[in-house]
């Protein structure tokens, strides 16, 4: 399956968050072309500031595999990871990260050091590949709708 | 009670990690001079790369208070937080962070942007106070002992 297929699945997770009044972010961990774990933001439900979609999906993936590393895994997430999730992805040694929409306010790129060309420093495992912009419009629109309703 | 008192308590948590073969880091969350939550590193035990002492202590504190914010709380941790834990502390809006030993390899200061004077950018909540170096020698020695044994 291709990246759009899995990003659509992550979007369905984000919609679940939206439907219960959570900031709509969803994540999927894929391993050998199989969905290993899912997660959607549950910060309000759990009253836990660390219950981001990525953290939930990663912890579920570790548990499913019985391993603290995910070198063959790909994490799809609808919105650019924050600093915490970026750190968690670093420790997981995940094979690939694919995110949809950029997040200039809370995304990790705002905080991590830059290279000479002002690109963010690669803080993930050296072997981790990174892609972004997949279904960015849809991922971003869900966030915009959410915050517009709450204004 | 003073910072040394609580850092000794965090060191006892770190010793628990040491005793079960985990990288020896311990954390305590204090609220109004009462210990609200404790945590020690359990990455190997849980096979979960996110099970750092700070994450466990924060999640326990959120659960204990039924709140996703800890503005009156202080987190004591024996070693400088990593990028993930730094991000989690940001979201928690914790009142104060006190760490013992610096961690030049995995500590957040290695990755976060710097100010003009090369000090790390303040990535925590604007009201979060930061102190470090409390019982640094003891906190660092436990780490050194752990890694020496494993070489």
Automatic annotation (TrEMBL), chains A, B:
Protein name in the entry: tRNA-specific adenosine deaminase
Domain CMP/dCMP-type deaminase as annotated: residue spans: 1-111
Classification lineage: Bacteria, Pseudomonadati, Bacteroidota, Chitinophagia, Chitinophagales
InterPro entries associated with the record: APOBEC/CMP_deaminase_Zn-bd, CMP_dCMP_dom, Cytidine_deaminase-like, tRNA_aden_deaminase
Gene Ontology molecular-function annotations: tRNA-specific adenosine-34 deaminase activity; zinc ion binding
Alphabetized Gene3D superfamilies for the sequence: Cytidine Deaminase, domain 2 (3.40.140.10)
Keywords: Hydrolase, Metal-binding, tRNA processing, Zinc
Subunit structure, interactors included: Homodimer.
């Amino acid at each position: 399956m291709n990246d759009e297929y899995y990003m659509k699945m992550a979007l369905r997770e984000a919609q679940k968050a939206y439907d219960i009044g959570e900031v709509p972010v969803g994540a999927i961990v894929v391993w050998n072309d199989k969905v290993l774990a899912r997660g959607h933001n549950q910060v309000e439900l759990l009253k836990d500031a660390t219950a981001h979609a990525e953290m939930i999906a990663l912890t579920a993936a570790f548990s499913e595999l019985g391993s603290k590393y995910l070198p063959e895994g790909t994490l799809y997430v609808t919105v650019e990871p924050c600093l915490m999730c970026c750190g968690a992805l670093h420790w997981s040694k995940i094979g690939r990260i694919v995110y949809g929409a950029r997040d200039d306010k809370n995304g990790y790129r705002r905080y991590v050091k830059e290279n000479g060309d002002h690109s963010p420093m690669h803080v993930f495992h050296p072997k981790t590949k990174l892609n972004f912009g997949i279904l960015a419009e849809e991922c971003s629109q869900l966030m915009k709708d959410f915050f517009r309703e709450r204004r």
